[in-house]
Each structure stands twice: as structure tokens, then as C-alpha cells.
Amino acid sequence: MKKILYKKFLKLRAGKFTEAELNTQLQKRGHSLDKQIQRGDFNYSDYAYEVEILLKNALQKKFSDATLYQWADSLLFRLRHRLNDQEKVSKTREGDKNLLFNIIKERRSIRAWSKETVYERDIISCIESAKWAPSSCNRQLTRVVLLKETEDINFIADLFFKQPFIKKSPFVLLVLFEDRYGDDEKHFAYLDSAAFIQNLLLSLHSMNLGACWLGIKQHKDFDVKIDQIKERFNLKCRYVPVSIITIGKYDFQTIAPPRKNLDAIILNKEMKLEPDKK
After folding, report:
1. 209 C-beta neighbours (distance < 10 Å), count
2. CATH number assigned to the domain covering 94-249
3. What is the C-alpha separation between 47 and 220, in angstroms, rounded?
4. CB neighbour list of residue 105: distance below 8 Å, 6 or more residues apart
């Protein structure tokens, strides 16, 4: 009886969701269903039932996020047909691995720019790469404001920083998160944003663009500054600023500072691994 009432409640609730609310719920329930399938558990579950209800409502109301709905539909298909191997994992080619490792090791913080033109389309391409970073429960709540006008860059620099090189940057990315994390999950917001930023930094470096990642400190007037950002950039809800990324072309390679040895990083010494030596 309780289960029947619960299902009725889910149907009524889904019918009242706005498009944004429904999409958020579908991402959450789809994420849980995806984990169930990856475990090889093909029992019909409450997650599957909720995904079906949400998907049905989205399609009936002609909501617009086709990519999300196709993903949800594919999860249901995999559950019904007991498929957990839809995509075979391909082995990484040695050359691809070496390229990735080199990009990771060569990336540096850049604080001086050449006069070479930076194209906005290249930065957009890097943001496209950054969005594939993992996030808690696949929330994907990291947001960016792309700044290229001198007045906007100066505004952000004066609001949070006292470093003159920021104002000389051709582009600045203001990184924020949408404030929809529970009180016990606030730190997840910063983890999610950091993963996004790391993807972004590596992508920028791979395109020969220099960047510097600067964290934003939460001083006593932090909420006032959030309101100022919201007003200046016409943001519709509460976004919390995390960092800025300065971006430009550079014509020199900075010298990498030394990194700690693995025995200072891997704490359980008996499991210590040495990298391959070639």
C-alpha cells in the first residue's frame, strides 16, 4: 500500500515540476540508475520508475533538453535488456598517453602575455572540454562568465584581487557554482569546480594558451560582492564565485618548480610504487 501511495506521489510531484526542476531530478535519478546498471543489478527499481515518470512528463510537455532525455531513455533500454557493456573500453594508445602526460607536466601558471591575438572560439572550445569533468551526482553546477571587455575585467580584478597582471589579460573567466548544494555538501561545490578548472587549464595549455588560476577568498563582505556580481552580469539566481582564470598568448616557457617525491605523497609506504624509468 505504501509503495502504491509513493508512486502516486511521484507522479503528482513530477507533473508540477518546472522544466529546470524536472531536468535536475532526472539527472539525479538517472545517475543513481546508471550506478545500478554498472553494478550489474538489473532488477527493476524505484530509480527506474522515477526516471520513466520524469521522462514521460518531459516528453508530454515538450521540454527541450533532447540530449538529457536520450540519455535517460538509453539507461532504461539498458536496464530492460540487461546490457552493461554498450560501449567497449578501448585501450589507450601509447602515443596518446605520452601526449597527455606531457601536457600535464608542461602546464604552468602564466602571468605575462604576448601581443598575439587570442580567439574567443578557442576558449569556448576549452570550456566544452572542461564541462566533461566529473561532478558530484553529475550535478554539473559549475558556471563561467567569459570577460573580454576591459571594464568588466577591471571590475573583477578590483573586487577580489590586488594583482596588476589580471587587468592586462586579454580574457578572464570568472568561475562560479550554482548554489544548490545541501548544507552537508557545500565542499562538493569546490571539488566539482576544481575538477572543471583542471580540465580547462589542460585544454588551454594544449591550445598554446597561457592561464593562471586564482582562488577567490571569502572575506567578511563576500555576500555583498556576490550581489555586485549578480547585478553587473544580470545573473538570475545565486552563484558563488570560486576562482578566476586569466587567459592569453605567451611566447616563453616558465621553469617548473620541483615536485615532491612519491614517498612524500604516498603515505602507506608498503604500497609505494616507483614510476617506470625509460
Report:
1. 22
2. 3.40.109.10
3. 42
4. 256
**Count of C-beta atoms within a 10 Å radius of residue 202:** 18
- Residue pLDDT, tens place only, 8-34: 888 889 899 999 899 989 988 998 988
Contacts (Cβ under 8 Å, ≥6 apart) of 212: 109, 110, 111, 165, 245, 246
Q: In this structure, which long-range contacts are made by residues 121-124, counting pairs with CB atoms below 8 Å and at least 24 apart in sequence?
A: 122/207, 122/209, 123/171, 123/173, 123/204, 123/209, 123/247
Residue span(s) of the chain under CATH 3.40.109.10 come to 94-249
Contacts of 232 (CB under 8 A, 6+ apart): 152, 155
Contact by Cβ (8 Å): 23, 63? yes
Residues paired with residue 176 on neighbouring β-strands, in sequence order: 143, 241
What is the pTM for the complete model shown?
0.80
